[in-house]
Amino acid sequence: MNIWNSIPFMRLLIAFLSGILLSINFHEVNRIHWLCIPTCLLITFLFSKQFKNNFSYQYIRGIPLLLFLLFAGIQITDLHREINYPGHFSKQTGSTYLLKIAEPPKHKEKTLKATAEVIAVKVGKKWFQTTGKLLVYLKKDTRSIHLQYGDIIVSKSKIVDCPPSKNPFEFNYKKYLSFHQIYQQTYLTDQNWIETNRNEANTLLALSYRIRNYLLKIIADAGVKDDEYAIGTALILGYEDHLSTEVIGAFAATGALHVLSVSGLHVGIVFLVINFFLKFLGESNKARITIFLISISALWLYALITGMSPSVWRAAAMFSLISLGKLLRRDVNTFNIIACSAFILLCINPFMITEVGFQLSYLAVIGIVGIYPMLYESYFVKNKWLEKIWAVTCISIAAQLVTFPLGLLYFHQFPNYFIISNLVIIPISTLILYAGILLLAISKIPAIGLLAGKTLYFLLWMLKETVDIFENLPFAIIDQISITTPDTFMIYGILIAVFIYLKQKKLVYLHAALAITLVFTGLQILEKIEQQTQQKIVVYAVNKHHATDFINGNQSVLIADKLLLNDKDKMRFHLLPNKINHGIKFSQHLSSDLNMSISSPIIAQKGNYLIFKDKLVINTAMQVISFKELNYLPSIVLLNKMNIKKFDELFKLFPSSAYICDGSISSSFFKKIRQEHPHLNIRSVLDEGAITIDI
Questions:
Q1: What's the pLDDT score for residue 52?
Q2: Which residues lie below 8 Å from residue 159, measured CB to CB, with a gap of 6+?
Q3: pLDDT, tens digit, for every residue of 520-570?
Q4: Do the strands 636-639 and 658-661 form a parallel or antiparallel pair, or are they unpaired?
Q5: Cα 344 to Cα 12: distance, rounded to the nearest angstrom
């Protein structure tokens, strides 16, 4: 039996999804789709006539339909690019803007961050209606902290393009924002914006935010605080603003990161609880319709309260379709339901496919539906309790098997104890969800509400301690794994080929898996050989800091200021991705102070100069020693805040050297030097991003 015959909607989804991905990654295809769609319709009509009664060529009739969906995916994606709209605010040249706060502002240490809709722009003395989103940073003060979703404000500030990532392999925040139709940003101080005392919030969304804030207050008033509060509000309500980097890292290291985001697991539990309490209505047609309407309404209300994240959209849409199937007494293929729900969501917003949570949640469900039955039925367990443990184990393996390639691509790590950790963490998180729902329902009953709050806090504490235990076990994770997007597709190709082979027992699929494995292995070997012979100098672009990496094979010496070396978040965000992708297994970190002393086989030190591979002399410039003490001129002079005052002296000593300004030197000073010395070979990392020099 052809595996595709039982899941026809999956084929349609693959064609539609291919169009979306082509449009997102290759903008050139958007120029041709308008002509292709009517052409595909015409071909479909002609093929239907030509092969109507010829069953040997039935599959040919589907090709034009798949092409039509491919180009439909391209067009829908292009239509969702708001920056192409004629009324987008970027098409106007005004400096005064009417903004509507499009979501509750997020509180940072010194600022508030919010997405705003630019509803009008003032050009001269006339206002023009506009569309488009803008990323807004507001200085935190007594006025800004009271801003709410839907508030209308007038701003007179400079709008600039969102800055690109400046370091190799760094998370591309500009690209991420573009997927959310945000291309520009502004910073508002207390001087350049005013309130209008107007609020134009969407009634339904405003209600959902008010309900969520009310529920957050219930959890806080119950005595849940600190990391337990952050974990609880994320797990129960999908509110992730209080999660620290340490907590997220701990859950990722144990393979339980999915617990922190409201997804299919949480929505499924809510769905089961609702249906359990409605069982008393019976099985009559009227009762089934009542149960369907109540459960679907409650499901989407829960989705609204939790912020309508992509994973919640997926889960709510899928359970809605399952409920509809039960209502109509139809036995439908689960893969078709998954494909149908994804198709609907991507029609609403094709850029959902770029969300990591959306990708992981769909793949996890596909793995559970497709692989779990094969694993579970491979071994029969007689004992009732051991059977439950075996079932949870099979679910964990199935979900991890189809999501681990994305985990390697995005998080560069693999949790070794995911099977054991999920056996403990999933039941505890389920109890937390039950306890959280119970607390929210009975919080107004004094004694019982207090008991429910203490129970919830205890369960959250237990979950946090359990995660910490697994994180600190020896060999808890394999980290610093580097794979590319093509590598990820090859791994999925191997998994799909093996899965179909196990289903259909056709050797052609096993041969395909082996062939892809050989190609993948060969590419990995070539990459390792290249990494073993690499010799590079990387001057990173980290604002107000200086950091230079000397890379030799799989080792490096990093010289940076002490503040940066002690800032784990900045090191992880700006520097670590480059080290991982270059296969650096050992990195020596040195603080650049006056008494720096280097002991390394990679670089040699001579006074305040560094010699790398006997080819370049790099000036670290704590002080300037006499030129006579050197046998030859330095090829590169690294300028930083410690030696910039001696620039004139350096320039006189080394007029023909290449100068590089690191992140500790402002762009304005760099421009000043370039104006005063137009013939000087000088570059700035803040101006052009990190500078990599291959030796």
A1: 55
A2: 97, 134, 184, 185, 186
A3: 999 999 999 999 999 999 999 999 898 999 999 989 999 888 899 998 889
A4: parallel
A5: 12
pLDDT of res. 50: 56
Instruction: Give tens-digit pLDDT for 234-281.
Output: 888 878 888 888 888 888 888 877 777 666 667 777 777 777 777 777
Residue labelled with tokens 């909607």: 9
Burial of residue 133 (number of CB atoms within 10 Å: 0-12, 13-18, 19+):
buried
Evaluate if residue 623 carries a pLDDT over 60.
no
Per DSSP, helices labelled H in 138-263 are: 173-179, 203-221, 226-237, 245-253
Task: Give residues with Cβ within 8 angstroms of 678, minimum separation 6.
Answer: none
* Token pair belonging to 28: 């050139």
CA distance 252 to 467: 10
Q: Taking the CA atoms of the chain, what radius of gyration do you get in angstroms?
A: 29
Contact 482, 580 (CB under 8 A): yes
Residue-range domain boundaries for the chain: 8-79, 89-201, 207-479, 485-530, 535-694
User: Reduced to 3 states, what is the DSSP secondary structure of residue 45?
Assistant: helix
Contact (Cβ atoms closer than 8 angstroms) between residue 7 and residue 336: yes
**89-201 maps to CATH 2.40.50:** yes
Spell out the residues 6+ positions from residue 528 whose beta carbon is closer than 8 angstroms to its own: 583
Count CA within 13 A, CB hemisphere, residue 194.
Answer: 3
In angstroms, the Cα distances linking 474 to 130, 149, 257, 424 are 56, 46, 19, 18
Let me know: does 565 contact 593? Beta carbons within 8 Å: no
CA-to-CA dists, residue 509 to 6, 110, 370, 502, 515, angstroms: 19, 57, 17, 9, 10
Nearest to 235 by CA among 433, 101, 385: 433
Band (pLDDT 50/70/90 cuts) for residue 210 is: confident
> Distance between CA atoms of 11 and 16, rounded to whole angstroms?
9
- What is the Cα–Cα distance from 554 to 580, expressed in whole angstroms? 10
C-alpha distances in Å from residue 279, one per residue of 208, 272, 283, 291 = 27, 11, 8, 8
- Per-residue confidence (pLDDT) for residue 36, from 0 to 100: 63
Distance CA 196, CA 156 (A): 14
Q: Given this model, what pLDDT does residue 632 score?
A: 62
DSSP per residue, 298-365: HHHHHHHHTT--HHHHHHHHHHHHHHHHHHTT----HHHHHHHHHHHHHHH-GGGGG-HHHHHHHHHH
In b/e form, how buried is each residue of 144-176, taking b as 16+ CB within 10 angstroms?
beebebbbbbebebebeebeebbbbbbeeeeee
Alpha helices in 26-136 (DSSP H): 33-50, 58-79
Which tokens sit at 550? Answer: 């000397």
Give the number of other CB atoms < 10 A from CB of residue 384.
7
- What is the Cα–Cα distance from 610 to 586, expressed in whole angstroms? 20
Would you say residue 27 has pLDDT above 90? Answer: no
> Which residues, listed in sequence order, are joined to residue 98 by a DSSP beta bridge?
120, 154
Q: How far apart are CA 399 and CA 405, in angstroms?
A: 11
Structure token digits, residue 317: 């849409």
CA distance 634 to 627: 10
Element (H, E) at 107: strand 106-107
Smallest Cα–Cα separation from 617: which of 635, 605, 638, 592? 635
